[in-house]
């Protein structure tokens, strides 16, 4: 039996929990982490003492040992860390599912908690660790002198090329933002609950890094989100319908550089995303036609369009028309970011998006499509090293 056969659909997300999403939490990141873990365990109705694994980000400031101590978790048999920030968003779930499906651990928790608005803001420029002289930060020597200091500036470079090559416009990007805010307006958990925008609002918002306007950029949020992963067999005995992990993949493409892979023949393409897509379709036995909804990492609006193309939902340069035709609406072919995304709900490196994928499988999204949702694609950030999931209903 192959690795893929033993892995797919043998683990499930059984619990989700979060703090509020705010601009000033008023408490430590450690506390946010603990609150979100307790909320997810309560949702799954699993005791704290049963947790025996954590899968986290290298950027997480709250170590697994600190959270274990604070919550009274007696033992940990498994713990791992994934780099690359939002690009690795789905990879901790992959690690957790692999651990559970192989019997290494029984209850693995993924969490992400930080004060990204009231603490260090990514949009304010390179973080303190960027000035450490090591190979991990070497790439900044090639971009910072040219004014590419922030994620928005780095991704604007790619967006400009995409516009020139395929005729996309700022309004095309704006429609992504309008849709996310429309969904967020109906989501009581979202920071922008009750506050939709129009395309005119988007076009009137200031440039952050041309062509990216303020309303093309994700939020800076304080908060915490956690997920509980157990075996599919156990998940079936818990209160909520399990969200089976049908596929979980990571990808690094040729000439990969964090958010600035400008030395490729075509910088408007993201081969690491295509690599993850191929793995997900192989693992799950599904393809784009079988995906009923998607949660696409929307740090910046152009990346939603590029991901639609890389995952095969439409051809190169066609995403703007795919969106304009209403395909991403709640009642469309592929409802996208029904929670409001990181543009509208909150920015927690995509973990809140995974939680929305679970809600779509459960049928409990505040913008639940009328059609049956059997399979949901969830993605990490791009064009950094990428990751993705396919979550499926247990039917």
Mind explaining what this structure looks like?
The structure is a single chain. With 395 residues, this protein is of the alpha/beta class. It has one domain (3-119, 221-392): Peroxisomal Thiolase, Chain A, domain 1. The chain is built from 14 helices and eleven strands. The strands form two sheets. A nine-stranded mixed sheet has the order 3-2-4-7-1-8-11-10-9. A hairpin with a 2-residue loop joins β5 (207-209) and β6 (212-213). α2 crosses α3 (64-71). The longest helix has 16 residues, at 29-44. The mean pLDDT is 95.
Protein traits:
Peroxisomal Thiolase, Chain A, domain 1, 14 helices, nine-stranded mixed sheet, two-stranded antiparallel sheet, alpha/beta, 395 residues, globular
Give Rg in angstroms: 19 Å
Let me know the largest β-sheet. Answer: 9 strands, mixed
Percent helix among the residues?
Answer: 25-40%
* Total domain modules: 1
> Strand portion, in percent?
15-25%
CATH class: Alpha Beta
Shape-level CATH architecture: 3-Layer(aba) Sandwich
Would you identify the CATH H-level superfamily? Thiolase/Chalcone synthase
Structural class: alpha/beta
Low-confidence stretches: none
How many strand elements? 11
Order of helix and strand elements from N to C terminus: HEHEHEHEHHHHEEEHEHEHHHHEE
N-to-C span: 23 Å
Summarize the structure.
This protein has a single domain, classed as Thiolase/Chalcone synthase (Peroxisomal Thiolase, Chain A, domain 1, 3-Layer(aba) Sandwich), CATH 3.40.47.
